[in-house]
């Protein structure tokens, strides 16, 4: 996963719940999906045995495990202690985990569990209302790095092109350092970020089959086609079946 993230070629992640797991996993791989984001917070059952069975079915792809809190748009209804135990069970079985910066009670323990198994720790920030100012966004990145993030994900709702440019500037600034970022501009105005922010260094773009999981997402066939058009290295990798 680390090699993929640092390969300089866009990666496309698609989110999945726990319905029809194995057939969808193989279909996703055949379609060209790079990363399966397993949205455990949306699972019908969240006991460890059930969750790990879904992970096993998706092992044809690199797996990113997300148990998104309700604070940041997720559907997790259990306690933080239960969420931490699931992250600990998942850490040795997946290639990456995503934990919100706002999860102060369990943040350090989740990152520690990930690093113990050489699993990538993505520390994320989501704002579904607006895009904060540059200083606040940079503080989010700095705090996530200080917490031990391998990758910092920033996803905010944009209302104008100036909001999009503000997010783009985070990527341009990060290019002068060693910060791995995933930056997403949510909303219709931000749809451009799904295709062109990878050119500025955003490590993963998110897409979907069926129903969108975030405002402004483009479906997988459209995303895939646009990336093949604008990124020759991506097209070459997919033509080679990777």
What can you see in these coordinates?
The chain has 242 residues and is of the alpha/beta class. It has a single domain, classed as Aldolase class I (TIM Barrel), CATH 3.20.20. 40% of the residues lie in helices and 19% in strands. The protein is built from ten helices and eight strands. The chain has helices spanning 2-5, 21-31, 48-57, 80-90, 107-116, 134-147, 161-174, 193-196, 220-230, 232-239; strands at residues 11-16, 35-39, 63-66, 96-100, 120-127, 151-157, 181-186, 204-207. It has an eight-stranded parallel beta sheet. Helix 6 (134-147) links the parallel strand 5 and strand 6 (151-157). Helix 9 (220-230) crosses helix 10. The longest helix is centred in the middle third of the chain and has 14 residues, at 134-147. The relative contact order is 0.12. The model has no long low-confidence stretch (mean pLDDT 95).
Describe, in short, the structure shown.
With 242 residues, the chain is α/β, with parallel strands linked by helices. It has 10 helices and 8 strands. Helix 9 packs across helix 10.
Secondary structure layout:
Layout: H1 2-5, E1 11-16, H2 21-31, E2 35-39, H3 48-57, E3 63-66, H4 80-90, E4 96-100, H5 107-116, E5 120-127, H6 134-147, E6 151-157, H7 161-174, E7 181-186, H8 193-196, E8 204-207, H9 220-230, H10 232-239
Helix pairs in contact: 9-10
